[in-house]
Specification:
mainly beta; Immunoglobulin-like; five-stranded mixed beta sheet; 2 helices; about 10% helix
Length: about 450
């Protein structure tokens, strides 16, 4: 019974005292990480002090990890920086923070625990990628990759790709390091994209291990509306109006064309307007449409002035021909004046102006004499070729008249019987030949009021 008590006392009191190692251990590193699939081990930095006698120490664990170095020597009172590398034997199923229970053992068999805690992660969990905001007017964008872990990547191959760009780079990246790249953009690659958040992908290769990491590109909203107007043509006036959405948002656009009430009659549109409004003498045509980025609304307005021009020309031609057709080749104008003669008889001077508008031949001008009057034998330069008192006619004959030629024919009539009131003289006529055709022209009627015989009157 006494031996059993002594044995129990030795196991629980004496043995722990014998197995303890008096080492001062201070951990210098932090955030150790083990990346699955990479050959790089997890690294731990310690400062170890031996206050006792110098000794050789071993480090080991029983959970399937290699430790390097596995032994070290510390002299009496010596302090040494020791960097331990921990790598798994075989596959590690554990993910996240994992503690490897390790032991430092002295040459006499005494030990001290050395727990080694590390974060076991996949390659993709070591990185963060992103970019600066992207404006539709930008010519470049900055893309970055950030190493979130206390791990040194000596050689990375990364392909960055998105809807805006695609490029590949090789570079090292130290613990907590950040690498930025400025990327030139081709606006044609994203001219049809609307504003919003787009995925940025990075295909990462390290020591033949591959990982895919996603980030975000913020394609910021920007309203950019470009208007182009082109005018050409004189007879057929054409106006092209194009409004193009150069931004990255769905944009509501409006095109308004103003026409007056005349020009609208000869104007066509492509496409047809959505709204037509009239205000006073103006007409407003409106097109409204929602367009996506890079889309445009084009309106063609054609005013065909050829139609009204032809109408005006046609009307002028008709007027000219009508005027020419209806114009008299010989124009006669008749007027009468009161004259005084010896004896106090009532007397009038009759004048006939003959104007040839065109060349005419064989002209015979005939005037009729009113009743109760006689001819006074006194004439102008052109004397009558015949006076027929019986038929009360007086005639002048000309072989020809040139265009623009004017002849003044005159004679005097008188009456012994007084005339009161309005005195009317009949029209004179001219018969002539023009281009082989016989034509006739007549003059106006002439009037005289007898009460005004003391004055000369021209009618």
């Amino acid at each position: 019974m006494k031996r059993s008590l002594i044995l129990i006392f030795a196991l629980f009191v004496i043995l722990p005292i014998i197995s303890a190692i008096n080492l001062g251990i201070e951990k210098k590193s932090s955030d150790e990480v083990l990346i699955i699939g990479l050959e790089n081990p997890a690294k731990f930095d310690f400062e170890i002090t031996n206050p006792d006698n110098g000794d050789n120490f071993k480090i080991y664990n029983l959970v399937g990890f290699y430790i390097n170095p596995s032994d070290f020597y510390l002299g009496s009172g010596e302090t040494k920086d020791i960097s331990l590398e921990l790598s798994p034997i075989g596959n590690v199923k554990q993910r996240g923070y994992y503690t490897v229970r390790s032991v430092i053992q002295a040459s006499d068999g005494s030990e001290i625990d050395l727990p080694l805690t590390m974060n076991v992660i996949e390659l993709k969990d070591a990185f963060e990628i992103g970019s600066s905001e992207l404006n539709p007017e930008s010519n470049s964008i900055t893309v970055y990759i950030y190493n979130k872990r206390n791990f040194n990547f000596e050689n990375l191959n990364v392909r960055f790709h998105s809807k805006f760009f695609d490029f590949e780079k090789n570079f090292p990246l130290g613990p907590y390091g950040k690498k930025e790249f400025s990327v030139d953009l081709n606006k044609a690659d994203f001219k049809e994209l609307v504003a919003g958040f787009y995925t940025l992908n990075a295909e990462i290769n390290a020591d033949d291990q591959e990982a895919s990491v996603e980030g975000i590109i913020n394609f910021v909203e920007k309203d950019i509306l470009e208007t182009v107007e082109t005018d050409y043509g004189l007879i057929v006036s054409t106006k092209l109006i194009e409004k193009k959405n150069q931004g990255n948002t769905l944009t509501n656009i409006e095109i308004v064309v103003k026409k007056n009430i005349i020009s609208r009659l000869f104007t066509s549109f492509e496409p047809e307007p959505d709204v037509v409004e009239r205000s006073d003498l103006s007409v407003y045509y409106t097109w409204v449409k929602n367009i996506k980025p890079s889309e445009s609304l084009m309106v063609t307005v054609k005013t065909n002035w050829l139609i009204p021009f032809l109408i005006v020309i046609f009307m002028l031609v008709i007027i000219v021909f009508a005027k020419k057709y209806t114009a008299e080749d010989v124009k006669l104008k008749k007027k009468v004046n009161f004259v005084s003669i010896k004896g106090g008889e009532f007397a009038l001077k009759v004048s006939i102006i003959v104007q040839a508008n065109n060349y005419v031949e064989r002209i015979n001008v005939i005037d009729k004499l009113p009743l109760l009057v006689k001819i006074y034998e006194r004439f102008g330069v052109d004397k009558p070729s015949r006076i027929d008192e019986k038929n009360r006619r007086i005639e002048w004959s000309f072989e020809k008249l040139e265009a623009g030629e004017i002849r003044m024919l005159s004679y005097i009539i008188y009456s012994k019987v007084g005339v009161f009131g309005r005195f009317a003289l009949p029209t004179a006529s001219a018969v002539y030949e023009r281009q082989g055709k016989i034509k006739e022209s007549k003059s106006n009627m002439a009037f005289f009021v007898a009460e005004q015989k003391d004055k000369e009157k021209d009618y």
